[in-house]
Design goal:
4 helices, alpha+beta, 7 strands
């Protein structure tokens, strides 16, 4: 998946003070993921399957193809139709109640200006996702970070 040598990737990470199984499951189960990222997922992630993620506040949907799942260790997906547009989550357990989540998004295309813009926006976006995850799993607080980042696009 990752050609990190060209430096054309987005990268975000954060420690979540919850067990690795709970953190991993938060990205597998759309009932949980919808509390901190998208508004609806068509189904839980399952290896080899395609699901749809919806951001109702932006009237936006994307097809996600699940390339691989390694329970409590990694999630690897194709984002949309472009086979090069891939996202990988890794989950590193620290003791019984802390997990470091790392997200790497690759497959950006375009000239230097386009690449910089895509990488900046995606890194910022995934950082918000992780902050929202942290607030939800650690404190039960739904921050609406993704919707509030672009209020001009949101209908909520």
């Amino acid at each position: 998946m990752e050609n990190l040598s060209d430096n054309h990737f987005a990268d975000a990470s954060m420690m979540i003070r919850r067990p690795v199984t709970e953190v991993y499951q938060a990205f597998i189960d759309p009932e949980v993921t919808s509390q901190f990222w998208f508004s609806e997922g068509s189904d839980a992630l399952s290896e080899g399957e395609t699901v749809e993620w919806t951001w109702g506040m932006f009237n936006h949907q994307v097809q996600i193809k699940v390339l691989s799942l390694v329970k409590d260790e990694s999630i690897h997906i194709q984002w949309g139709e472009d086979p090069d547009a891939q996202v990988r989550w890794t989950f590193d357990e620290i003791g019984e109640s802390k997990t470091v989540v790392k997200i790497i998004n690759t497959g950006f295309k375009g000239d230097q200006v386009a690449l910089i813009s895509q990488i900046r926006d995606t890194t910022g976006g995934f950082t918000l996702v992780l902050a929202g995850l942290k607030a939800w799993l650690e404190h039960g607080i739904r921050l609406n970070l993704v919707a509030d980042k672009y209020p001009e696009l949101s209908d909520s």
